[in-house]
Amino acid sequence: MKDIPQYPKLLILMILLAGIVLRFWNFWEIPFMFDELSAMSRTGFDNFADLIKIGVAENDFHPAGVQVFMYYWIRLFGDAEFVVKLPFMLAGVAAIWLSFKIGDLWFGQSTGILTAAYVSSIQLFVLYGQIARPYVSGLFFSLLMVFYWSKYFLVRQKLKYLALFVLFAALTAYNHYFSLLFVATVGISGLFLANRKTIIPYTLSGLAIFVLYIPHLGIFFSQASKGSIGWLGEPGPYFLFDFLRWLFHYSYWSYVLILLIVTVGSFTVPNIAGSSIQKKKRLVLLLWLVPAPVFGYIYSYTAGPILQYSLLIFSAPYLFILIFSFIGNISLQRISIVVALIILVNSLTLIFIRDHYRHFYRQPFSEVVKKAIQLEEKYPDDVFIINDYLPYYSEYYFSKHEKAIPYYTVRNKNLTTLQFDSVVQAINENVVITSGLDPVSFMTINQFFPYWIDYNYGFTFEHFTFAKTLPEGEKELSGKTVAVTDFYSEIGNWKINDKYIEEDSVRNTNVFHMNPGTKYGPGITMPLSEITDSRYLFIDIAVQVKALEKNSQGAIVAVIKNGEETIQWKSVNFSEFELKEGEWSNVYLTIDLLVSLGRKGNVSPCSFDTYIWNPNNNNFLIRSYEITSRQGNPYRYSLYYEIED
User: Fold this and answer.
1) Taking a C-beta distance cutoff of 8 angstroms, is the pair 584, 543 a contact?
2) Which residue from 200, 205, 113, 194 is spatially nearest to 168, judged by alpha carbons?
3) Are residues 112 and 21 in the same domain?
4) Same structural domain, 455 and 499
5) Per mean pLDDT, which range of 219-228, 312-321, 332-341, 365-374 is the poorest?
6) How many domains does the chain have?
7) Tens digits of residue pLDDT in 51-83
8) What pTM did the predictor assign?
9) The domain that contains 611 carries what CATH number?
């Protein structure tokens, strides 16, 4: 920091300190996310060749750089959460400093300081600065690449700067495919700044980067042939608008603050447009922001969805440099006040509006094990876990807590409903906790473990706890009855053709007979607002059915409509439950309204409809038809979307 005057040096140190506090808060308790555990599960190979072949080329969609680093880092220092995360978190802090240096180099200290203040304190950089994945590492290497690229073009054409540009460009390329895209973007933009003296060495530097990347081309083409990762949704038309809202914490305080900084700063500094070279710099920055979202959009709609907020982190610092390039040098007193406001507003909105530390510090894998351990202490040797995770994820946290609790994972099992029933029935323990399962599994498990005693939810998880017999001191939870009929009495305005109702003399009750000539059976339609005013709700449908012939193909259908537009049509065929001829069986269907309506959907104009469908003219009886609702999860996407309690 020798080249920085004393007072700005102190200001930068304060910005760095704020960034350290925000990233390292309760450092020892930051759990792993899915991506981190997935990467760690692919580091246990005996040799480097298997790491590359199995751990990267066959089972990953990222370049080898970070996976290779983690392979050796874990071998040297262990796999504790804080150990694995530490180098990435330090890279995030270093990114604050590098953002200042680049902003200062391009447009002056005020631009650098204001940019660093935002990189220090907004969720994009704090969140990915706490995750051991190729986002903050790519940010770090790409900033170093741009720094030496800038030194070469804006300060002095030294071969040392060009060599360091090549080195960090290669490291950036090995980090993530979108950071590779950023390398290409920066590299091409340099061709327009090169002159007769620099064009040849600069072109050779690009060739050197390509040569350094040649060993990775086989992995690149192998992974590219697999397409997209498969679980992401397509980006909507307002993706960039939503990203900017997230970037500023969905907070009017944050929106107003940056508008005031730019507006007041621009009006108080003369000649903000600057010279032609300043205009050219701004054009370069603007061009750096374009490729990631444009390529992400095109690829998402032509090959497979890939675009998400994390992929914009590599170019995000340059958005702030561009914004603050219109602000000239501000006095120390004024910029100190502005920086204090930036840190204060961003920190408070991160903590209270984004609720970052509550949601990020509760991840599904650690939470389910902690909950199971708590239950095990109350009910020794009487707790069981069912989840849909790779065994490594559970075993990691059992090892961390030095506990062993029996569990079963359905991951990669492709169980039929009957097979899953058998798994649940075979559990000897009284208490079972579930995690990561399909929503309909709630009813499947509940029929064998009839007491629902706990519901824990958070970012990307819902954990349900059930018991065969109600433990002493526990309270039973229950859903809300929406509608039910046993064809003798009913709750709700059911549509039932009475001529198909028959008396069940064995149980002295009624049944509905779906014969081969009956296409549609009982059903009910109602405004969705009569069920709930929130999209955070599960609607469970349970039907008792007796097949009167083999291979019955009847179905439960549920439909959500917005006016005349069908926004979700979902069904479950009786064959999935492998009904036995002449025996009563339960058939289930669950609607997750958050999936149906989306995170912006409105309940009020929508209707809910469910009915029995007999597409193959089968012969079966229905004894009961019940619809219940239970609380959903308002925090499922809380780290990225606006939080609604």
Assistant:
1) no
2) 205
3) yes
4) no
5) 219-228
6) 3
7) 999 999 999 999 999 999 999 999 999 999 999
8) 0.94
9) 2.60.120.260
